[in-house]
């Protein structure tokens, strides 16, 4: 698909939130459109590299673009037909992603039953939701509200930390794979390193600092419980995954999916599998997350008070294909209410160690399905390609 310039009208500011930053971006883009003689979307191919550069340099993110009065999607964000052809809310299939009650899972006779439920979901779907996880409802609400408040600050406040790499461990950007993907997606992200070395606390935006720090503690506690259940579900000692530092490297991404004017032409987040061990995801009640189940996309319908947990590639590998790391995506948000989600990716901190299937799970009946590799090698490959489906894990197959 060629990318076409949209009508210049998409750049017409119509709201009162226009800032000097947005105006600079808008002016540059409008002038260039005129120079190319483009007045409607049926004409010239646009210079994608230039558009990308200008979008990045504007530091606006998609929320800033929207606030500038955009009425249709800039071509940068228009996805190819193969992505767009199956974008639709999935048929409602209540209960297809199980919601598992964790109460009593650490200290009661319920533990074997909970281990069984968690391990079944990890084997069959790679996704589950958990309730009675011990995180108070007020903390869930506070965390979502704080991340939302960060994204809804004036563009200048966010632009200060707009960057893709930072020693401080805090950054704001739009699209982690902006320069690698075929098309950009309709979301912005605040990223904070939680461990093994916490980001510089002063750099975490004040508007959400306390909540991010509190969330880190909650995820560390819950992550330890989940890794215990998942280890046991593989027939290993409960402490096995944690001993391998699988909870130590934690990265938080606070996503913001604002209203999208043309949700049929783009996505909120392209289909991908998470590279790490597990991901703990807090989503608000807006919805849009979908999981691949066979050939179908299944909605992960928000359950009040629940947290979503999914298996990442590294755990699929360590489990010798017992647990599944599943492709998932987020539809572009068609509604006026923005969607907020906060994912914490849990990875081993020891990146030079060799990883591969646990020897306990390898036998002559079930030979090792993957080769050994270091996490550095794995992550290098992950971050030098666009977010996509299962290509990465398959690269490491034996
Ligand atoms: O926003 C969501 O619900 C999903 C986020 C996600 O899949 C990711 O950050 O990798």
TrEMBL record:
SUPFAM superfamilies: Clavaminate synthase-like (SSF51197). Residues 246-348 form the Fe2OG dioxygenase domain. Keywords: Iron, Metal-binding, Oxidoreductase. One of its GO terms (molecular function) is metal ion binding. Belongs to the iron/ascorbate-dependent oxidoreductase family. PANTHER family: OS06G0255100 PROTEIN, OXIDOREDUCTASE, 2OG-FE II OXYGENASE FAMILY PROTEIN. This is Fe2OG dioxygenase domain-containing protein. It comes from Eucalyptus globulus.
């Amino acid at each position: 698909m060629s990318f076409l310039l949209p009508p210049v009208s998409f750049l017409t500011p119509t709201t009162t939130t226009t800032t000097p930053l947005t105006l600079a971006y808008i002016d540059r883009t409008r002038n260039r459109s005129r120079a190319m003689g483009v007045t409607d979307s049926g004409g010239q191919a646009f210079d994608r590299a230039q558009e990308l550069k200008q979008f990045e340099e504007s530091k606006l993110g998609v929320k800033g673009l929207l606030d500038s009065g955009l009425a249709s999607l800039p071509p940068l964000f228009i996805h190819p037909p193969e992505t767009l052809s199956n974008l639709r809310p999935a048929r409602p299939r209540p209960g297809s992603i199980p919601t598992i009650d964790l109460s009593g899972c650490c200290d009661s006779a319920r533990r074997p039953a909970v281990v069984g439920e968690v391990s079944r979901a990890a084997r069959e779907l790679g996704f589950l939701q958990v309730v009675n996880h011990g995180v108070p409802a007020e903390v869930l609400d506070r965390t979502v509200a704080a991340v939302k408040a960060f994204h809804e600050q004036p563009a200048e406040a966010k632009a200060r930390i707009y960057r893709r790499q930072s020693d401080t461990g805090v950054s704001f950007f739009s699209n982690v794979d902006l320069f690698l993907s075929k098309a950009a997606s309709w979301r912005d992200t605040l990223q904070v390193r939680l461990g093994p070395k916490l980001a510089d606390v002063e750099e975490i935006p004040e508007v959400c600092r306390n909540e991010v720090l509190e969330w880190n503690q909650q995820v560390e506690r819950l992550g330890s419980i989940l890794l215990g259940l998942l280890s046991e579900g593989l027939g290993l000692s409960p402490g096995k995954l944690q001993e391998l530092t699988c909870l130590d490297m934690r990265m938080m991404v606070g996503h913001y999916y604002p209203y999208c004017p043309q949700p049929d032409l783009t996505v909120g987040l392209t289909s991908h599998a998470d590279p790490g061990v597990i991901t703990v995801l807090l989503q608000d009640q807006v919805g849009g997350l979908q999981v691949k189940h066979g050939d179908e996309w299944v909605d992960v319908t928000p359950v009040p008070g629940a947290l979503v947990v999914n298996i990442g590639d590294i755990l699929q590998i360590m489990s010798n294909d017992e647990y599944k790391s599943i492709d998932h995506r987020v539809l572009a948000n068609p509604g006026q209410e923005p969607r907020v989600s906060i994912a914490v990716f849990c990875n081993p901190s020891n990146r030079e160690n060799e990883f591969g299937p646990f020897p306990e799970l390898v036998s002559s009946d079930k030979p090792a399905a993957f080769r050994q590799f270091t996490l550095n090698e794995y992550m290098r490959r992950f971050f030098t390609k666009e977010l996509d489906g299962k290509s990465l894990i398959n690269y490491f197959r034996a």
